Amino acid sequence: MNKNIVVHKYGGSSVATTEKIINIAKHLIEVKKTGKDLVVVVSAMGKTTDGLIKLANEITNNPNKRELDRLMSTGEQQTIALLSIALMELGQDAISLTGEQAGIKTLGLHTKNTIESINNEVIMQHLKENKIVIVAGFQGVNEKGDITTLGRGGSDTSAVALACSLGAECRIYTDVDGVYTIDPRIYTNSKKIDYISYEEMMELAYLGAGVMEPRAVELGFKYGTEIFVGRTLGNEDGTVITFKERIMEKKEIRGISVNKNTLMVTIDNIPTYAKNLYPIFKKASEYGITIDMISQNDVIAENGSIAFTTPRSDEQSLNKMIKELDENYNVIINPNVVKVSLVGIGLATSYTTIAKVFEVLAKNNISFHQISTSEITISLVVEESIGNKVATLLAEKFEL
Questions:
Q1: 192 Cβ contact partners less than 8 Å away, ≥ 6 residues apart
Q2: Nearest CA to 392 among 216, 188, 236, 210?
Q3: How do strand 330-334 and strand 5-10 relate by DSSP bridges?
Q4: Checking phi first, is residue 218 left (phi over 0); if not, alpha (psi -120 to 50) or beta?
Q5: Half-sphere exposure of 342 (CA within 13 A, CB side)
Q6: Beta strand residue intervals within 139-181, DSSP E
Q7: Which of 19-33, 177-191, 278-292 has the highest mean pLDDT?
Q8: Of 11-15, 108-112, 167-171, 277-281, which range is least confident?
Q9: Global model pTM greater than 0.85
Q10: What is the pLDDT of residue 302?
């Protein structure tokens, strides 16, 4: 690791106003005075991205994805210019770079691209010239030269990817002071976690914890880059995402997430053989639909049913897919569900956890639609109206 280079990332709420941007600029100058070379990744100001999407939707409910990428990318470009202007006004040389100018190459579907590679030569040259380099998060350029975006939370991914490429320290700053065992807005007695493993954080992020983007954590794990998460301009006592070997306490459950971005799709009257299911999931992949939990009632039933969950954000694509399915299938979409997930590396060696979960459900007369388990995760799909209650009861049971 090049300990002299530090990558900072500031989220949308942290740069929501010019006053906040100026305060961040002052802080960066103080960090620079300690001898650090700084690369700063920023998101769009406040709810700018939502506003841009709204503008597109005022024209059509189905905007072209290439053009939507170009539109959304302008939010971060606004922020990098303002932060660079603020730094220079305060006497610190700085330069703003788009994702393309920063050498970020991407591939995949528009609005859901992934980072393929980073050429950091331009960034390194500017650092040698003693500039603070401000990079637009959330974006890159594909093989066609088109501007692309990385999906929600993509600025986290940009920051971690740059840190990995530069061999730098990575610090993610947001509006919370670290990762909590459960969202404090759901359970007020939740505790801040000082250290969490990459595996646990990836699961929590993927399952709905909004503090980090799962691909960002995955990159940190792959390249061995520790990630600090803390409050913008707050005390430096946040959460460190690191290797599980560094964590002394292997708790049974480390955290609980509640994912409201969930739809449950049930398809009835379908022979549940693989040859019949393949066309459904093939179409889902063609439409870029993310499939999560899958369950079926009988693997050899002549007229069975299958259910799966998918993000609510994929609903438009899902509806298009359904129109192409066999008309004899009965498709039911339940939009009123959430996924409650328990995550902990201690699950791998615990034989009592699942019994405790069902004990909580039984004592409180709670039913669920689906359940799935893995080495470090237990997930339940429940009615949205009781999602927070279920999470709170489980947090109390596992003393989170």
A1: 177, 178, 179, 180, 181, 238, 239
A2: 188
A3: unpaired
A4: alpha
A5: 27
A6: 139-141, 147-149, 169-174, 179-180
A7: 19-33
A8: 277-281
A9: no
A10: 65
Q: Are 247 and 173 in contact (CB under 8 A)?
A: no
Mean pLDDT, rounded, for 322-343 = 86
Place of tokens 């976690």: 193
The tokens of 54 are what? 């709204």
CA 23 – CA 21 distance, rounded (Å)? 5
d(CA 205, CA 154): 13
CA 36 to CA 92: how far, in whole Å?
13
Task: Using the predicted structure, report yes or no on whether residue 264 has a pLDDT greater than 70.
Answer: yes
Region of residue 245 (left: phi > 0; alpha: psi -120 to 50; beta: else): alpha
Residue 248 has pLDDT above 70, yes or no: no
- From the list 7, 35, 2, the residue with the least C-alpha distance to 170 is 7
Tokens representing 110? 């528009």
Q: CA–CA distance from 44 to each of 15, 123, 278 (Å)?
A: 8, 21, 40
Task: Answer whether residue 199 shows pLDDT above 60.
Answer: yes
Residue pair 201/217 in contact (Cβ under 8 Å)? The answer is: yes
pLDDT tens for each residue of 360-398: 999 999 999 989 888 889 999 999 999 999 999 999 999
Of the candidates 219, 245, 241, 212, the one whose C-alpha atom is nearest the C-alpha of residue 228 is 241
